[in-house]
């Protein structure tokens, strides 16, 4: 009888955590996406490309570069409880993992936005040779309490143009 | 000091080059920050403690690379790249490398 109730309590805790993860995590993700879209529209005027500047000159763009400097933006994003369970299930069934696609998408866009904000605040006019880098933090297999989070860093060369 | 990840410094001429320079740092998680990160893991979202930690680590790696380049007498580092690896449980190495140049 006692074992039965403790098993039930464990299940109850699991379900409550799952619901909290789904509701609060979903709310946070939605809010984050809204702010990303808003800021992306705000910084639409700032060109970011992943070509080196000599390619632009070859195309025929007239670039008069006054100054250049290095900028980077980074973000660490963790998954919520609901996503973690989904990821766990995906180990058995395979297939697309939509929950983690959206997680990586918003991390990447946030990193690029931070890069843009930093470049603009330092007086740049455009950013060339954008590169992205990933670092997966503490992904231990077999540990139930492992914090699965990913770091994304965007970096590039900011250019100041002569006008 | 000019630092770029393209292979030259726009508008300046390369007069001398000094080969590869690099900087690295290995960082472990902070216990307090890790506790917060675990709480945060319930609801997801950005983990600010880790963002700060890694930002600091990257800056330190770049700082070390710059010191090495200054020893050579260089005034620019071009074509810099980052490389990362998880070396132990909860620790990561950040390595940055590039070519040191003298430009004028």
Commentary on this structure:
The mean pLDDT of chain A is 86. Chain A has one domain: Hypothetical protein apc22750. Chain B (Translation Initiation Factor IF3, 2-Layer Sandwich). Chain A is built from four helices and three strands. Chain A is elongated and about 80 Å long. Chain A has 163 residues and is an alpha+beta fold. Chain A has a three-stranded antiparallel beta sheet with strand order 1-3-2. Chain B has one domain (2-103): 2-Layer Sandwich (Translation Initiation Factor IF3). Chain B has 104 residues and is of the alpha+beta class. Helix content of chain B is 37%, strand content 44%. In chain B, strands 1-4-5-2 form a four-stranded mixed beta sheet. Chain B has helices spanning 31-43, 48-72; strands spanning 2-3, 14-28, 44-46, 76-88, 91-103. Chain B is elongated. The A-B interface holds A 17, 20-21, 24-25, 28-29, 32, 52-54, 63, 65-66, 68-70, 72, 74-81, 83-84, 103, 110, 128-129, 131, 133, 135-140, 145, 147-149, 151, 153, 155-157, 159 and B 2-11, 29, 34, 37-38, 40-47, 50-51, 54-55, 58, 62, 80, 82, 84, 86, 89-90, 92. Strand 1 (65-80) of chain A pairs antiparallel with strand 3 (44-46) of chain B, so a sheet runs across the interface.
Distance between the termini of chain B: 12 Å
Percent strand of chain A equals: 25-35%
Alpha plus pi helix count of chain B: 2
Structural class of the secondary structure composition of chain A? alpha+beta
Q: Strand count, sense and closure of the main sheet of chain A?
A: 3 strands, antiparallel
CA-CA gap between termini of chain A: 81 Å
Measured on Cα atoms, how large is the radius of gyration of chain A?
22 Å
Give the number of DSSP strands of chain A: 3
What is the fourth-level CATH superfamily of chain B? Answer: Hypothetical protein apc22750. Chain B
Can you count the helices of chain A?
Answer: 4
The largest contact between protein chains, plus residue counts on each side, is: A-B, 50 and 35 residues
Architecture per CATH nomenclature, i.e. the level-2 architecture of chain A: 2-Layer Sandwich
Largest sheet of chain B: 4 strands, mixed
Order of helices and strands of chain A: HHEHHEE
Global outline of chain B: elongated
